[in-house]
Amino acid sequence: MTELAIQRLTTDDLERLVVLESCQPHPGSRRQLEAALNDEDSCVLGAEVAGELVGHAVVVRLPFEAELQAILVVPAMRRRGLAAALLEAVLEQGRQWRSERVLLEVRAGNASAIRLYRRAGFSEDGRRRGYYPPLEDRADANREDAILMSRRP
Ligand SMILES: CC(C)(COP(=O)(O)OP(=O)(O)OC[C@H]1O[C@@H](n2cnc3c(N)ncnc32)[C@H](O)[C@@H]1OP(=O)(O)O)[C@@H](O)C(=O)NCCC(=O)NCCS
To answer: Measured in angstroms, how far is the CA atom of residue 126 from the centroid of ligand 1?
Structure first.
């Protein structure tokens, strides 16, 4: 894609990150985002198109592994390969950290994210039953399984 740039974000990008997060139903809080930007063991990657922040991914360094904690692309820019490009940058960060694997957890009902991860070479390691609270605040809504996935960076 023309004019796509993926780069590590800094505390200077906090406001842009807060706006980006607000495009989803359960946005990360300003405090969480600021903590990630300030944490030397976290890497917040931003995807910019024509200078506008349209996606981000958060990856955290663990003792042996790296964990993808968030990935998001604004709805208007989806299905253009931006998340795939962010994931490639996440894997590159894992290689720089010499992580043995990159781990992630995803809601069992999040078909688009699961397809994205499989396509990027992640495979399923197991499930945590009923790990996530229901997305909708309804009395009859069920908790959702978490699918655990990983790959070598
Ligand atoms: C999941 C998400 C990050 C994908 O972003 P994206 O930029 O649209 O993804 P890409 O364009 O890079 O897609 C790469 C591949 O993932 C799969 N994919 C992505 N979105 C999909 C969708 N809506 N339906 C089916 N497959 C999808 C496809 O295989 C796609 O390749 P293709 O377009 O060549 O078929 C985006 O939908 C999003 O921000 N969702 C909300 C946040 C979220 O659920 N994050 C994951 C939490 S674990």
So the answer is: 21
Tokens of 77: 């820019």
CATH number, domain of 50, equals 3.40.630.30
Range of the domain at 60: 4-151
Domains held by the chain: number: 1
Residues constituting the chain? 153
pLDDT tens, position by position, 37-80: 999 999 999 999 999 999 999 999 999 999 999 999 999 999 99
**How far is the C-alpha of 53 from the C-alpha of 4, rounded, in Å?**
10
Residue having the nearest C-alpha atom to atom 3 of ligand 1: 72
Question: Distance between CA atoms of 126 and 123, rounded to whole angstroms?
Answer: 9
Task: Tell me which amino acid residue 38 is.
Answer: N
